[in-house]
Design brief:
Elements lengths: L27 H18 L5 H7 L4 H4 L1 H24 L1 H20 L4 H29 L4 H27 L5 H20 L14 H5 L3 H28 L3 H30 L1 H21 L2 H28 L5 H29 L4 H19 L1 H6 L18
Length: 417
């Protein structure tokens, strides 16, 4: 997100501390959007602690319940081709409100589901709403913020980390009473966000040029962006094996599982916002990315073959490597090609979210066909493959990068990585 060439040292031109005091002195519109962003990111990990409870409540298998992630992220991937098209025509404010409205409706319907098939379908609608909202929120925060883009991006990344950390916690607290309650809680919080944005956010200036549906696909013709998206595809397979499959392996109470993933989310936030920029500045983006992917692979192997305590520790530790990878991959996607940031990021996210949809679908089935260890072996192999792509395409990622668009023109970024 910060302006830097993909292969260069990080943090020299736009340090995260720029305008530090202004981070907390923002217009109400920024706080309203950031608050809704926290809830939007909470929705991703919300179901983690209650996956076993949902399976029991709806008399579903693990592989059926894992489709909650698959439908959500499959729709999110396809929606990447729509978000720029929509927001460049109706404006950022209306796109945010449309996304929030969809989340409110489909989160509430999810809580009323009578079968796992209904729940999977409602999660797909939720994914569309979340894609519209999250893909537009960064551009809105940057456009409405005080103190420059660095302060706005830091606020956005903080919202991301807070949401990823608190989602499992909310899921645990409400899900311990009944598995349906986290869905109703999310709908209520998003409804508050809808009202806050309606009240405080004015319409943002529309881009000079409208985005077509195929612009993100065309942007992938650039070798640097295509390499980044390919590496991120394999990384996301590993990432979402942890997020969607590990709760079944840990098989803990909602509170215990929520605590594990809360600690995971805290590490993700700290390493994404605070640690990654410092490591990039010292070692360079590609070294950090390659090393972090290999460490994630090692962590997954130990998670898969260790005892229960080891699995808990490795699940939490994976948050550190995922936080590093999220930040570096996002910056590569936004800076490696000459395409406008919203278009480049949409193309990149279009590719990588298919892996986020595939991992929850495949991991439980691989366990059924083999044993509980093999899904983690394959996830580790995927992380190593991502590191291999970064190493083999290093020259492309460092020499074909173009200086990013000015930070104030930043756009579609989903999950910061």
């Amino acid at each position: 997100m910060r302006g830097t060439k993909s292969g260069g040292h990080h943090g020299a031109d736009e340090p995260s501390g720029q305008g530090g005091s202004s981070v907390l002195h923002q217009p109400k519109a920024v706080w309203a959007t950031a608050g809704a962003s926290v809830v939007a990111f909470m929705g991703i990990g919300l179901v983690d602690p209650i996956l076993p409870s949902i399976a029991r409540g709806l008399h579903a298998t693990h592989s059926q319940v894992s489709l909650l992630f698959t439908s959500y992220f499959l729709i999110t991937a396809v929606a990447m081709l729509l978000t720029g098209f929509v927001s460049s025509r109706i404006g950022g404010r209306r796109t945010l409100l449309a996304g929030l409205a969809l989340v409110v409706v489909f989160a509430a319907l999810s809580g009323m589901s009578g079968s796992v098939g209904e729940l999977v379908g409602f999660r797909a609608g939720w994914g569309l709403g979340n894609a519209l909202f999250v893909s537009t929120s960064l551009a809105v925060i940057v456009g409405a913020s005080a103190g420059g883009s660095a302060a706005a991006i830091l606020l956005y990344e903080s919202a991301l980390g807070l949401g990823m950390a608190c989602g499992p916690l909310l899921g645990a607290v409400l899900g311990d009473m009944k598995w349906r309650y986290p869905f109703f809680g999310t709908a209520a919080l998003m409804a508050v966000g809808f009202l806050a944005i309606t009240a405080f956010l004015q319409e943002q200036p529309r881009p000079a040029a409208k985005t077509s549906l195929l612009d993100p696909v065309r942007a992938l013709g650039h070798r640097g962006l295509a390499s980044t998206a390919a590496a991120a595809f394999f990384y996301n397979y590993a990432f979402f094996t942890v997020l969607a499959f590990t709760p079944f392996v840990l098989n803990m109470s909602p509170y215990a599982s929520g605590g594990v993933f809360f600690a995971w989310g805290v590490l993700l936030a700290v390493f994404s916002v605070l640690v990654a920029p410092r490591l990039q500045h010292r070692f360079g983006s590609l070294k950090v990315l390659g090393g972090s992917l290999l460490l994630l692979a090692a962590d997954l192997l130990v998670l898969g073959y260790g005892d229960h305590t080891t699995a808990v520790v490795c699940t939490v530790a994976s948050g550190a490597f995922i936080g590093l990878n999220n930040t570096v991959f996002t910056e590569l996607a936004l800076g490696v090609s000459p395409a406008p940031r919203p278009v480049a990021s949409a193309g990149y996210n279009f590719v990588r979210w298919f892996a986020a949809a595939a991992a929850p679908f495949l991991a439980p089935r691989i366990e059924e066909w083999t044993d509980v260890h093999i899904p983690f072996v394959l996830a580790a192999a995927a992380a190593v493959t991502g590191a291999g792509i970064v190493a083999v395409r290093r020259r492309t990622l460092t020499t074909e990068g173009a200086e990013p668009e000015p930070a104030t023109e930043d756009g579609v970024t989903v999950l910061a990585g």
